[in-house]
Amino acid sequence: MKVVISVDMEGVCGVASWVQVSPPEFGGLVNGTEYQAARERMTLEAAAAAEGALAGGATEVLVNDSHDTMRNLIPELLPDGVTFTSGNDKPLSMVEGVQHPGVGALLFVGYHARAGSMRGPLAHTWNGAVRNMRINGVDTGEYGLNALLAGHYGVPVVFASGDDVAMAEIRQELGEQVVCVSVKEGLSSFAAVHLHPREAQRQIRQRAEKAVMAAKKAVPYTTRWPAACQLTFDHEARADACERVPGITRIDNITVGWESPNAYHLFQTFRMLAKVGEVRLNG
């Protein structure tokens, strides 16, 4: 069985500030010192999940860099034999690879809570412009969008690690089949109590192994199709821009809506609208 690991950075142990997840060219502090430390921990957590997946019976592991520019991983820190993707123009973005034949499980590492979540460190959805994503009346985050897209290809989510708020949201939406590891407890948007990095990695490895061993019994995530979708922004100008896209309707001053026949259409429409909504707010 092949396994895909989607690894983000905001949910990694030790991370609680945007400075830590921003490469030097995008504002990382002191020539990227904090970012370099965070990307190392990000890679080590992905490596721990990969080691666990291999111990749990995976025959191949693909680690998909899913943060920001998507060129954060330090390849030399990954286990021998693991493959990885990098670059931010991938067809399936954060879950690139789930469309390949033989993939039987998707693992989330370093995941964070959805936009607006109380006490979720660095909680957001996709970018700073998105306030909420709602699918058939259910508010969701990147984890829900990615799980639905994986489900489109018959791949279940079996494991997740990140902050405690994100893990609670994932359990509620995706179900108890997802083995979760909380590597930090959120105190506010920019503060958390963290496990020691080596302890976080130990737990990730141990529980990823357990999750992959049980993957054959897991069920891919889905919803009712066609799905009613609503995307809410932080400013009406973003909804103005998206309303001009054919097939998109205006719901209220900051919300647009559409109907999707399947998860692939939903994900790519969301992705496109999130980009369209990144308009300048000063005219």
Characterization of this structure:
It is globular and about 50 Å long. The protein has helices at residues 33-55, 142-152, 164-174, 197-213, 236-243, 263-276, and strands spanning 2-7, 60-65, 83-85, 103-111, 130-135, 138-140, 157-163, 179-188, 191-194, 227-233, 249-252, 255-260. Strands 3-2-1-4-7-8-9 form a seven-stranded mixed beta sheet, with helices on both faces. The chain has a five-stranded antiparallel beta sheet with strand order 6-5-10-12-11. The chain has two domains: 2-130 and 141-217, Rossmann fold (3-Layer(aba) Sandwich); 227-276, no CATH class. Strand 11 (249-252) and strand 12 form a beta hairpin. It has 283 residues and is an alpha/beta fold. The termini are far apart.
Set out the fold topology.
Elements: E1 2-7, H1 33-55, E2 60-65, E3 83-85, E4 103-111, E5 130-135, E6 138-140, H2 142-152, E7 157-163, H3 164-174, E8 179-188, E9 191-194, H4 197-213, E10 227-233, H5 236-243, E11 249-252, E12 255-260, H6 263-276
Parallel strand pairs: 1-2, 1-4, 2-3, 4-7, 7-8
Antiparallel strand pairs: 5-6, 5-10, 8-9, 10-12, 11-12
Helix pairs in contact: 1-4, 2-6
Outline the low-pLDDT stretches. Answer: none
Largest sheet: 7 strands, mixed
Shape: globular
The strand count comes to 12
Mind telling me which CATH architecture of the largest domain this is? 3-Layer(aba) Sandwich
Number of helices: 6
What strand order characterises the main sheet? Answer: 3-2-1-4-7-8-9
CATH topology of the largest domain, which one? Rossmann fold
How far the N terminus sits from the C terminus, by CA atoms, comes to: 51 Å
Radius of gyration: 18 Å
Superfamily (CATH H level) name of the largest domain: Dipeptide transport protein
Number of separate domains: 2
Structural category? alpha/beta
